[in-house]
Amino acid sequence: MIAIFRISPVRPRGVRFCAGFALLACLFSLTLAVPVCFANEAAGTLPPEVQKGVDALLAMQNPKAPVPDAATLRGFLDYAMSPLNLSADGKDPYPAKRKEGVGIFWRAKLAAPLSLCLQYLYNPKLPSEAVYPASIRRAYWEPGPFTSLAPPLWEQLGKHKDTPMLVRGVEFEEITPDTFSGSYYSYTMDRAVLVTEYEGQQAIVSLTWQRGKSNTGKKATPVGKYEDWDFVYSGVPGTLASGIGWAETYMYASCSILVLYEDAPGSNSTGYSMFKWLDAGWASMNMVKQSHIKDGAERSFAGLKSFMGSPRRPSPREIETYAASLRALDLPALQQRFAPYSAKVSEAAATNKVLQSDDFQKVIKDGGYGKSLTKEEIIAAMVVNFIKGKLGKPQLAGPLQ
């Protein structure tokens, strides 16, 4: 979901490359690592009342911490939901550094009403990879207060003007390969969601905190371009970075605040404001810069925007029904339906040097990719393939019926 660090990677076809981090690559090759942090990043550039709101919201990681008072929440929302936020020098503002590392403040817009967005983004019955195909390999909510919420989140809008509603949940998430290191990670997140209203506009404030460090980063690569949403996961720890393919990298810690809100009361578009912090890298060193987090946010949002902005977007019920039909099959039946996709992955190695390496050949040779995957992993890949077909994007191996 987010770029971990930019180093000098072996370039798969279609992967963006930034030569400006050659020095960092050299540092890695010499087994040295220097945390990326600058003095002016510590305090951030948000107005004090906004930073106060950020701190109060993230303090809710402790379940005993209160929801911010009305004045604090109002000061935060006034800024997060305003149409333009720039620092005095005209640069993008950013929050104070936290134990999770440096952070960003990033804004965008979705061409769909808030209530409709919530039916996809915060629907525990839907696989998240359908909605975030560029950044999430697979994800699910663990049973708990959020999954049993009644009525569901999108039906809570308009009912919490004076006192925000709070609901908590726990999610598992595995991301697609990081753009620059070629590694993918899985972790568990605590999430808290506030439903509220500001100036007649409905809004939700969604908070996440990563539980401990992620699993060790493992090697993965796109079959073609990242925006094609087809990835091959080797299961082999390490990176695709030249000289440090063996390195054990992790997402050590992360947290975020996402505000989704009506652009105006009853608007058909939804504002998207994100605050995000990340500590990730190698040998307990945080190698993350704000630009890396921003790049990751943009890639993740690009997939979401393609999905939510498409007139061909399938309904939540259609996605739910399709995913349920896959879960009803046993693993051999899924492998059989997935076989054409596995064959295309093997064929792609002819023009993809990364797929020619031993780490990938051992899982894709002779059309064997599907047999290296679990049932859940095959379902996730087939869900994304289904979404691509519905949106009119070229499918690697057709509809897999």
Number of strands: 11
DSSP helix fraction = 25-40%
The helix/strand series, from N terminus to C terminus, equals HHHEHHEEEEEEEEEEHHHHH
Strand content: 15-25%
Shape: globular
Which structural class is indicated by helix and strand composition?
alpha+beta
Largest sheet: 8 strands, antiparallel
Can you give the mean pLDDT? 89
- In DSSP terms (H or I, runs of 4 or more residues), the helix count works out at 10
| Integer-rounded radius of gyration | 21 Å
Low-confidence stretches: 1-39
Distance between the termini: 29 Å
What would you note in describing this structure?
The protein has 401 residues and is of the alpha+beta class. 29% of the residues lie in helices and 23% in strands. It contains 10 helices and 11 strands. The chain has helices at residues 22-29, 48-58, 70-80, 114-121, 128-131, 290-308, 316-327, 331-348, 358-364, 375-391, and strands spanning 103-110, 136-141, 165-175, 183-184, 186-198, 201-210, 218-222, 231-237, 249-262, 270-282, 285-286. Strands 1, 2, 3, 5, 6, 9, 10 and 11 form an 8-stranded antiparallel sheet that branches. A 3-stranded antiparallel sheet has the order 4-7-8, with helices on one face. Strand 10 (270-282) and strand 11 form a beta hairpin. Helix 7 (316-327) runs antiparallel to helix 10 (375-391) and helix 8 (331-348) packs across helix 10. It is globular, with a radius of gyration of 21 Å. The chain starts with 21 loop residues before the first helix and ends in a 10-residue tail after the last helix. 45% of the residues are buried.
